[in-house]
Task: structure prediction
Amino acid sequence: MDAKEGARELIRGERDSLIELSHRIHGNPELGYEETKCSGWLAELLSDKGFAVETGVCDLPTAFIARAGSGPLHLGICAEYDALPVIGHACGHNIIAAAAIGAALAAAKVADDLGLTVSVVGTPAEEVGDAGGKIVMLERGAFDGLHAAMMVHPAPFDIVMPRIIAASMFEVNYTGKEAHAAAFPELGINAADALTIAQTSIGLLRQHILPTQRVHGIITKGGDAPNVIPSYTSAKYIVRGQSLQEMEELRPKVLRCFEAGALATGSTMEVVGGTKPYAEMHHDEVIADMYRRNSEALGRSFPDLGPMLERAAASTDMGNVSLALPSIHPMIGIDSLPAVNHQPEFTAHCVSPAGDEAVIDGATAMAWTAIDVATDTGVRERLLARA
Result:
């Protein structure tokens, strides 16, 4: 039995436990940096399977690294497991985590024979939008020594190299002054009006931004009572661009819109966060092509999406990883249309039969890709030369 067939057989043997793990994570959604249960389940399972597991790495309680094999070529498989507020696993991180575990178990089986070391990098808080888990872990050395990294992410359909753009998330707080809204409104400073002016300004700014740029957000506090002039309001906004440079060109323009709200109302303004943005993804095209061939060998297909592929953009801290080392981040389809990521209907699809198949196929395709990377002389030498 060759290495790929052995990997496939191992994943088939673990099928029920991997799907159960995916469903358990899905049924226990935890927000970023609060994934105590999920990270614990993953670390415990890997430890039981013989991986050397270190939890709480990088001073992050819900981050971990689990390692197997002792070869010179060191591959990382990233696991995400945080959920979105209210709508839970509407981005399918339960599938990401379970597929990562399956791929790691299969790759570990042949690691020593192929001169591999395999690490599962448990990365919390991908959904937070600023200072995500991978960014913090990169800064603190968790990816040092890795030659390449990979993960798969659920989507309505399979995409080898999705369009992943840069993003900066920040919070804006306005402070004004309370007053009786009917009797003495002239004594108040209306912090809600500051937000209204800012949002109107941003709406007008959209005439003058590039088609590849985005700006969007929510009001997180708009006041306390309709008969009290709001003295404190806040909003969370995200600015995006095709690259970090393009995003940084837009960000000061958006901040000036918020400054206009403060100036017009007399409120004071505070900006929190936005200092650790998500970078655009630089896909390693050779490794991505290996993944594509392996995925197609499992019966998957990659539709020609035409203009939709260019329009449909997302952001992730895996982009930051890709700037530091060769990486891939393919999307694996779960047949969810018309539901798409970040909709509650998508949440349901992440534990559907198609979602379960994505766990198994994603694990297998990644394991096979790890084997290809280890056995392709040109790719192996290229990656080892980075050390």
